[in-house]
Model the fold of this input.
Amino acid sequence: VFLADPGMASTASAEDLKIGYVDLRRALDNTEKGQQAKQKLQQEIRSKQKKLNKKKQKIKELKKELQSQSMALSQKAKRKKQKQLRKRMARLQRMYMKLQHKLTKKEASKTKELFDEMRGVVEKIAEEKGYDLVLEKGETTVLYGEDAIDLTDELIERYKEKEDDDGGDDE
Done:
């Protein structure tokens, strides 16, 4: 009768486990769809920033006007202008926060969409090459990994081929 050491059995199976990882952020930055999504978001940010800057400039002008007229205005008129200024500043701050939230949400949505597409490519690579487990490399997930098990370059290459097959843009 042969008795196997339970610790030995788990070690043997762990040794048979084939593990790889991908850096989805790097893959996103190195594909056409990822770059297009990033450029589109940056254009939207610049456009919204121009609008915010105009409103900010109007507030600066109002503040300057208040300071220059401060001595000539009655207390009531001064309080009214100060109240207007505070309202505009609060409105601008709310607009900024709302815009920031909207853009963050939009970026997360587009990133998730592209990551989901890439996930399908990763699954094909893993199946073809016999990987049991493929991890996503991030700041807190994969602290170390040999370059030999980094599948990111292959993911980028295959995703670019998929982009070419799909016509590059399905928006």
